[in-house]
Amino acid sequence: MNNARIAEVFDQIADLLEFQDANPFRVRAYRNGARTIRDYPEPMTVVLADADRKLTDIKGVGKDLAEKVAALCAGETLPLLEELQSQVPESALMLMRIPGMGPKKAAAVFHELGVSTLDQLREACQAQQVRKLKGFGAKTEETILAGIGLAETIDVRMTWAQADQFARSIKDWMRDCEGVEQLEVAGSYRRGRDTIGDLDFLVVSNQPQQVMDRLAAFPEASLIGRGPTKISIRLADGLQVDMRVVPEKSFGAALQYFTGSKDHNIILRGRAKERGLKINEYGVFRVEDDEETFEAGRTEEEVYATLDLPWFPPELREARREFDWAAAGSLPELIDVGDLRADLHMHTTETDGKATLDEMVAAARKRGLKYIAITDHSKRVTMARGLDAQRLRTQWKEIDKVNDKLRGFRVLKGIEVDILERGGLDLDDDVLSESDWVVASIHYGQNQSRADITKRVVDALANPYVSAIAHPTGRLINRRPPYEIDLAAVYDAARKHHKMLELNANPARLDLDDVACAAAKSRGIPIVISSDAHSAEGFGVLRYGILQARRAGLTKADVANTRSLDAFLKLVAKGRG
Ligand code: DGT
Ligand code: CA
Ligand code: CA
Ligand code: ZN
């Protein structure tokens, strides 16, 4: 039972409670618990095994949640979950995954139209029955109809962060197998894609049977197929794991081949052919008069070298620009997590964060950051008890006091100001002008037209005090598609006003994504990689943001929060005119 799985169970309970119109505070307790545990840097099983620690010492985990975590880790099922599941048909759960739907609306179509499957819902939408329900309308009906397709493909791919937990537990499991000489995870996981279809393990060993037996014995897994040197299993959660066992002399070739991407490999095969060579998972071979001689295979470097290519960081192997860069000798030196000196988007207990200002500062310093910005929500976000001007100014006085005591670290006075549905910002310029840093974001009116949403964001960028747009497309992986937004217009506005765009590092957001970050970079727009932390552990997500930045080809210079405080503030000042 890993943290991702526990979080999923809690989210499921929250969904079911909400479907049944339960007390919102109860729902929120499970949602918050899910987020805390998902973000927590250590497995819950480790905390449980430590006699000196208690689960309830973790902020946001009360007695009730702690008992449930312990039960799940002990392999028990939760009576509450079973009870809720018996009351709601399984197919109805799919309904609430539809973008624009959520548990409340799902309950409405279920109770009032008797709809409990995606197909029935599609029919009801087509018959224009859904728009007649209270709280729905023609527009909502259209959104739902469009979202059904997405819901049907949901959960086919998991986020990188979820797959990472499984990759780690399999690595731990394989560590006890003596036959394993070397082990790597290849595929989309190694390339750092935002979502992962399956995990591809590669093992160097002279004892493939022993290695495969060990994987086959992974707890709760089922066998999909097995050959002389490869095996595929399915984990209890549905994730497929492929493993191939190769001899040492082929390791580099196999790692290269199974890291992909497929499109990158197709280009390599073409280059090999041009040189009278053949490349596959066993190595690079010279082909002469029907005879094949082994040229390279032990390391990826030597495989690439036979094709007159440099070694490519896996994140760049997408057949995008990497071969052009290699030809020009200008492969970018990709950013690393250690390059980050700051984090510029986070929340505290003043709104929906779980750690106080002091605790966030302590955690950031412990991580080695040099400066941070506190950006709690503004008042429009009522669910999070967003700040009005008065409460914000009070928080900033606290920040002044904290800064007075600190050496070599600075807390910037910030705010995540909401971009209102009708356009304009949730706080006036007079209070914004007293800040050090403002990120603006959309939380409401996400179903508006492309023209409306784009205008709201472009206008926000024109406000002199707004320095960056947070999570600019609003996507939530597997939950909500990006809103309709014309990113080209956003880039133009950011460039014109000398503003920055956020790469939100939350593994379910990763927004802007890699492609959009590369587009922003090509227009000279600085990117800020931010955690959007809601707890002291929340900074841990920064590495997921870094992976996407690397896939975008970003260097240290492309990311604003790698700069010294002075250089960063100069950049902010430029945008403030
Ligand atoms: P995923 O699992 O959908 O997230 O994406 P990948 O990239 O991990 O794809 P997967 O697991 O199907 O295969 C792993 C790698 O193996 C892939 O990136 C490249 C290589 N590969 C698989 N099938 C082919 C193929 O038909 N041709 C070539 N050239 N390479 C392949
Ligand atoms: Ca894969
Ligand atoms: Ca695979
Ligand atoms: Zn935020």
Describe the structure.
With 577 residues, this protein is of the alpha/beta class. It has 4 domains: 3-151, DNA polymerase, domain 1 (Orthogonal Bundle); 158-246, Beta Polymerase, domain 2 (2-Layer Sandwich), CATH 3.30.460.10; 257-328, DNA polymerase, thumb domain (Beta Polymerase, domain 3), CATH 3.30.210; 337-575, Metal-dependent hydrolases (TIM Barrel). 44% of the residues lie in helices and 14% in strands. It is built from 24 helices and 17 strands. The chain has a 7-stranded parallel β-sheet with strand order 11-12-13-14-15-16-17. It has a 5-stranded mixed β-sheet with strand order 2-4-7-6-5, with helices on both faces. Helix 17 (357-366) links the parallel strand 11 and strand 12 (371-374). Helix 20 (450-462) packs parallel to helix 21 (487-496). The longest helix has 17 residues, at 3-19. The protein is globular. Bound molecules: 2'-deoxyguanosine-5'-triphosphate (DGT), calcium ion (2 copies) and zinc ion. The site of one calcium ion (CA) has 5 residues, from helix 11 and strand 4.
